[in-house]
What does this fold into?
Amino acid sequence: MESSLMAENGEDKLLAVARHIAKTLGRTDTMTDDILQIFSTFDGRFSREKMSEKIDENDPRSFAALELTLKSLDRQISQYVSADQPIWSNSVDSAAFLNTLDELISTIKDWDPISGEKLIGSCLDRADDLLQQAMFRLEDEFRLLIERSGGGGGESFELNRMSGADSDEEEENDGDEDSIPVANPISDYDILIDALPSGTIADLHQISKRMVGAGFGKECAHVYSSCRRDFLEESISRLGLKKLSIEEVQKMAWSDLEDEIEKWIKGMNVALRILFPSERRLCDRIFFGLSAASDLSFMEVCRGIAIQLLNFADGVAISSRSPERLFKVLDVFECLRDLMPEFDDVFSDQYCLFIRTEAAAIWKRISESIRGIFMELENLIRRDPAKAAVPGGGLHPITRYVMNYLRAACGSRVTLEQVFQDNSDYRNPDNTERSLNSTSLSVQMSWIMELLESNLEGKSKIYKDSALSYIFLINNGRYIVQKVKDSELASLLGDDWIRKHTAKVRQNHVNYQRNSWNKVITALKLDNNSLPQNVAAKSIKEKLKVFNTHFDDICRTQSNCVVADEQLRTELRNWITGNLSPAYRNFLGRFQTVPELGKHADKYIKYSVEDIEHRINDLFQGNGGSVGGRK
Amino acid sequence: MPATDYQGSSVPFGALGRSIMSIRRDQVHNMEGNHDSSVQEAELELFQKQVTERFQSLVSCNEELLSLPWIRHLLDEFICCQEEFRAILFNNKSHLSRPPMDRFIGEYFERSVKSLDVCNAIRDGIELIRQWEKYLEIVLTALDSNQRTLGEGQFRRAKKALTDLTIAMLDEKDSTAVIGHRNRSFGRNTTNKDSRPHGHFRSLSWSVSRSWSAAKQLQAISNNLTPPRGNEVMATNGLAVAVFTMSSILLFVMWTLVAAIPCQDRGLQMHFSIPRNFSWGASIMSLHDRIMEESKKRDRRNASGLMKEIHQIEKCARHMTELADSVQFPLTEEKEADVKQRVKELAEVCETMKDGLDGLDPLERRVREVFHRILRNRTEGLDSLSRPNHPE
It folds into this structure.
């Protein structure tokens, strides 16, 4: 009803204006009449009766009506504009102010088409001036509303509400960056925060609607984004995130960087899952129906923080590739991967497109950096010097390191598969055999195993005693196979790999036996009995001597031989005693039957069967000290 | 494997990329071993020649020194040099890990990491200019010639935007000094209750900490940058010359960006000299000298950036402010014509910055491109350094 009244009122004004024009321009009655004629054919509202009826008496009054309206608006608006108290501190005031403002805007709109008329024009200039002042005031009210309710001013701060912790802590010293308390970690990201109360949001929307409508959208968006940006910046620094340059990240001590990465991951989750979506929602509500202003403001709010967060990942991506960094860098990769949908979602409009593109590019760089870390691991293996072989042929630290490293890495198997997926084998693209039926990750893993084995083979060659070489290979080979078998590596490397390597270990076993024990056992082989007795006695005596020498040799050289694996140690000993003891017992039996030897057996027989077994049982413990003659 | 071209590339590098690829294919057979020494020599000579030509073109081009189109031109030439250098590294992989080349290349990569931060700071700086542009747009809207009249209200609006612009342009230097000018429509009686500059005056958030300094960063890039000695050139088959060339270009380009565009703690004092025997040295030194000269001009000494368009913004804003301060209402016809003229100038500056080819957006993309190329070059370099040529 009100609006129809207003429309009627508007029409009256229009007619008054038209009459005024006709009268002013028409210096003679005929001219005025002509002008009125033109008007009447132009629009039905300007019909001759309507125009002529009150033309003389109403003209000044109608113009006066505009003047009167403006005067009244001026009085009301000026009163508000100069008020010291915020208009929005009182809802009656704010509603009245908005009503007055709307009236002003519609008056300007109504009279604008005929503003060419001088008197009206100057009236409208005053109206414009008034509008300008009102808009300035609106801008300030808008800012104040945001600041008062926990926005950019920084006096009060609401992030704690979402952390569900230390919410009482309101007071703090502004401006002192060090004193910004760190928000407690949160585990539930499935929340949005209402940084502003809904009443305030509604008020802000009322203001933004007027400002955008009156052509002050830029000012409004600017105030909005600078306030919210401050809020967001503070929220991020509350999470303990510092602004770090790429160089700073690169030079940071690893332990510090680890801490930073952890904070960053939390910060990313809070930012992408809570802060940015909350900002988006707030922006959409305040600029409801004004999507261009909303999108632009949102971008301005988030841009700096988004770039700051991504810059850190860039710094991580190009920092050192030393292998121990793998696990934290994998965390960064996973964080970005998991947040990609959030990036796509929250930064979906055209203004924010670049943030999405950046995030995807940086994610890719992190993946490159992980591949670089594996390359570093390869170098580390390849360059591990051969002379660094361990004494006693025991388990080499590099074997232990690499195997445990890979096992741990396999804890992130799915992630690593993604990392290596889109990347063809960069080392030897012509090797087609390997890439058949296997994922890039398993190619990578078997390649590292190959490097490790060839490094170990190099190391095995520096033992002077070949038996030690074999022990070394057995020890390390067996460790490798065991570590593979009971981990994800088994499925990555495959059954064939395990079979092949188990066989390899067994082969080394055989080689070891052949190499060190065969000649001892051979020494005990008895000739057939057809020899003359004295010759036979001499031969047996000789054999025993050879046996003793060989056995002592082996025991001496292998005295510090280490077999760390209990089971393997037992296996080896059992094999040796199982082959050696019967042969030796048999030999001793024969020895006793030779008359001239049997009498002086003690003189020739250095070891009893038990002694032999005892000494064998002393082997592979790495305690070279316990070697000694008979006990 | 060389990485594929950066997808966001807006530069027609396809042709160059292809030629590099074909060079690679040709070299693929001997890349493991000795890159044919005469081929290599020719390649290095060609690089010197190309760099010389590129920088000569920057000296003698039509674009005005330090204008947006000129900076774009500079970055294009940089990207080309970078690609040529990358091809050289690729073709001489086997030499890179041998001393003293490993040291030279390592130093180059360190400089390039430092330059990444400069690129990021410049990106912030471009965003800052965009914020200034927004104030100019408000002025344009306020004083639009399609307005019915130019009344007091419009001028008040324009003046407010101009004041905000002035404050924003001083922002990084001293924002509190000008706070008194701020045009607040209420609360005047209760001023000084809150002297802290409001968010309103913080034009944007910098992505680096407050202590970061462009001047120090440039200093760090330039540290120990000296031409290789004769024996070093010999020992590296001349590659050290290419590395020195690229390092100098990198330094010069970063220095120019810092000179042109606002960023934290700009400082142009830097020892920079190129011996005469480098054919490209003269052009770079001449550009360097001209930029230094520019920075010493009285009206540019305190500028937040030497970019021509920033100068124009300052000039336009100043003229407009003077004009706005002097007008009386109603406007005389003469004044109105003045205003129209100033508005036209302002509109032109805004147009320049919005330009699809030479505006701020393409510049930012170009700076990003430089960032990505530097990064990729480094990654590839590190890969080939750490990967032995003959796996055992």
Remarks:
- The first helix of chain A runs from residue 2 to 25.
- Chain A has a mean pLDDT of 82.
